[in-house]
Amino acid sequence: MKVKERVDWTAVDAQIHGEGTSSPNTQVPSGKSSSSPPSKSCTSVRLSSAEKPLSTIPSHSLIRDPLDPCWSGYFTKEEIQEIQMHNALQLRELPEGLQAYLQLFANKHVLEDLVELHFRHRFHLSQVDECWAEKAIGEVLDLYYYSYNFFNKTQNDLLRRLWVFIEKCFDESVFEAVM
Q: Which one of 125, 131, 136, 169 has the fewest beta carbons within 10 angstroms of its own beta carbon?
């Protein structure tokens, strides 16, 4: 059985900030060597990862929510605003049918109620947006129903179980999600 590799991200972060030295067991992201000078700021490191990723793991170059408190120790308010505005896309309104379907789940908090509601609403494959949402919600409910343990998982485990929701939303489009 192959032992799952783990990256010592504390050491990598320290190396990016020029603090201490890396241990022999520390994996350094591609494009960086232990002798390269540290970056001036995390912002330049994270923003440059969009064009030239520091890692081959997709979740490491994705900042889904710059307002998440986990980033407050890394970025100033100005840097967070810069991240939000960097190549920002104008999003279209959700289609009415999809909005109506998602609204059914508003203020529902009991797992059994959510499962029952999910099973009452099915969509034909031609209803692309609603069908994707229905399947994604069903898969998420499965994870909760079977008490999927998100802790003590490798990033590959999480990619396989969670990133797939994002990948599947592109099934009926000209775009492809690359993992």
A: 125
Place of tokens 């789940």: 105
Full-model pTM: 0.52
Tell me the CA distances in angstroms from 145 to 134, 164, 172, one per residue in order. Answer: 16, 18, 28
The DSSP secondary structure of the chain, one letter per residue, reads -PPPP---HHHHHHHHTT-S---TTPPPPTT--TTSPPPS-HHHHHHHTTTS-SSS-GGGG--S-TTSGGGTTT--HHHHHHHHHTTPPPPPPPPHHHHHHHHTTTT---HHHHHHHHHH----TTSHHHHHHHHHHHHHHHHHHTT---TT--HHHHIIIIIHHHHHTTTTSS-----
Domain limits, the chain: 9-85, 96-168
